[in-house]
Amino acid sequence: MREQSKLKFDTIGYWTEVKLDIIKEYASAYSTILAAQTNPSLYHVYTDGFAGAGMHISRRTESFVPGSPVNALSIQPPFREYHLIDLDRRKASSLRKMVGNQQNVHVYEGDCNTILLERVFPQVTWGDFRRGLCLLDPYGLHLTWQVIETAGRMQSIEVFLNFPVSDMNRNVLWHDPIRVDPSDLERMNAFWGDESWRETAYTTDRDLFGLTEKETNEIVAEGFRKRLHEKAGFTYVPEPLPMRNSRGAIVYYLFFASQKPVARKIVEDIFKKYEKRGMN
Fold this sequence. Notes:
CATH class: Alpha Beta
CATH architecture: 3-Layer(aba) Sandwich
Structural class: alpha/beta
Shape: globular
Number of helices: 11
Largest sheet: 7 strands, mixed
CATH superfamily: Vaccinia Virus protein VP39
Strand order of the largest sheet: 6-5-2-7-8-12-11
Radius of gyration: 19 Å
Strand content: 15-25%
Helix content: 40-55%
Order of helices and strands: HEHEEEHEHEHEHEHHHEEHEEH
Distance between the termini: 36 Å
Number of strands: 12
């Protein structure tokens, strides 16, 4: 109980609530389609690499908001299996308490970059008629390209991905790249997969002080979208949805990647539905 009392639920803004609604709506459509598949019958799995504590607090209303794992567990028809991962021991403990003794729900405490590759993805293989929806929603550059590329190459996994452009701009994409902390460069290389992000993020122009000119957020995001398609092997990667803070600044892009044209169509319709929502 003492450990649980130290847990503070994350406070989330309006656009995070929108993101939760988007993912829940698609996950419901996904589960309905997969559960109805009979020839062959498919075993569909929900995975959350940064699952959190299961609940959030709305900055707008100061009330509790169900997190993505709780939303996923409420979907009907249900997924056959759930894999929920968080690095924070207290959040993993909170999830376990919410899940109770449900045998098809697995909660992991640790680094999702390792757990996904070694313990979860091997259970969602194409040849075993298993399919998966995977949410990769880090707060910043805490995800490795290997996870993303592995999901794409497996052909059996669809992904929602937080592209943390705010963390990139704050810590990596500076006008004077020489001053960037080596550890932040390492995080960026790990997320992007190599150093080719430099070619996307910077122009060949220099300003009056001889410093490099940074490309817009839109160009950086488009470069990553192409990478998801061309390097990770996802067949369909719609334009991402920009997610903004209360001042209207883009803090991240919500990407979706899949092998199925029907998945792309559903997500594009959902993105279009939510992109015009106002901000509180």
